[in-house]
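Recall that a protein's primary structure is simply its ordered list of amino acids. Everything else, from secondary elements to tertiary packing, is in principle encoded there. The following example makes that idea concrete.
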Amino acid sequence: MKPAPFAAVLALTGTVVTASYWWGHSQATAAALESTRLQVQEATALASASAKSAAERAAALKSTIPMPAGMGMDDAGLAGIFGAPGPLDRFQGIFSHIQNLPADQIESEILRVREAMQAGSMDPDRLFAMHLLMTRFGLEQPERAVTWLNGQDMMTRGFGTVTVLASLASKDPQQAAKFFNDPDNPILKMPRVGSFAALGVAREWSRSDPAGALAWAKSLPEDSRAGAYTGLVGGMMAEDPLAATRTAQELPPGEERERLMGNIAENWGTKDPKAALAWANGLEGEEKTEATKKALNGWANKDPKAAADHLGTLPAGERDKYTGSIAGRWANRNPAEAAAWVTTQPEGDGRKEAVGSVMGTWSESDPEKASTWLVDQPAGPSKDTGIVSLANSQVKSDPEAALTWAATINDPTTRSLQLKGNVRQWARRDAAAATEWVTTAPGLTPEERTELMPTPK
């Protein structure tokens, strides 16, 4: 089988970002990958790493992604690139360096990057470099890569095996599956590593052979099957969300199936909310409720007012289930608008959850406006929930204000729990100040002062 170009599969690193949750820094890496993808995707289709010599690859690359000034291949290599100014220049330099790196230097380069990461340099640049190095290793030397990784530390083995198998699956999924099923590779028997590896293999396999990928996913043991189905569904959601739902429903009922169905519904709700809601309406029981909620969440992420208007068309007994999540999505875009909408909702569990969601977001971005709005709300369960959110968000920056708010909670049980929790947090940082507040704060009963008094260390 003709090897797939290393450059043409740069997008594989998007799959590896999922695996880096296991490693710990996926969000920063995802941002790095997305920034770089826009600059390099046109160039990545040009050259085959295995079919061209290093000199030919370098020449092809220079016409589209020149090595930024001061980052020549004969300088300090990746170490010099990592120290250069300009993040986009660094990403381009990393890609160019690894694209042209001689095959026999991949292992030593991985070890150098790993050493820097283990020393505390776990930044997006080095994560990006590690993704690319492992991806090229898996494409060009899969057998060597798997054998070599088995002799490395646990972190490198886990992360590297996931990456190598995902890249290999893009050109030879059967060989990737063979490596995955190897009983002598115990790293893949670890549930989280095995699940991430199955996700990457299935996602890449499904691009060229969906039926084969599905048959393989069905054959897997339960602890890795859910990961494979996640990869399959991820590849289907954009093109055929209904087919994605059918695939997800082949999993046995349980947490993984619910999570997958929810992801599909929310993604679908962003793109075609009416179709997503029509599909959700055909489900039953808790699955129907959760799918409807996720579809409305997706709609609210894009157009919260339209989602809220649709909520008004549902039977009154159903609205409480979805009010809070719509308000939370709306608050991410415009908390003042979300708060104004919440005041139009009847008192109940939905409004209570909605006020908490809005205040949780608004009090972080603009506590003064959030406080002003909350002052004017009528006393009751919803306002109490809003006060809890406001106090929790402010207790670190302004513990006295947080406690002053907590003392106004109407429900005695909620008030007591909130005061105790906030005093305890303050006392960990400044026991004297917390003690002073408990001693002098107006409105507290003698019994409350005794209960709230911080315990001396």
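The longest helix spans residues 26-44. Residues 1 and 362 are 56 Å apart (CA to CA).
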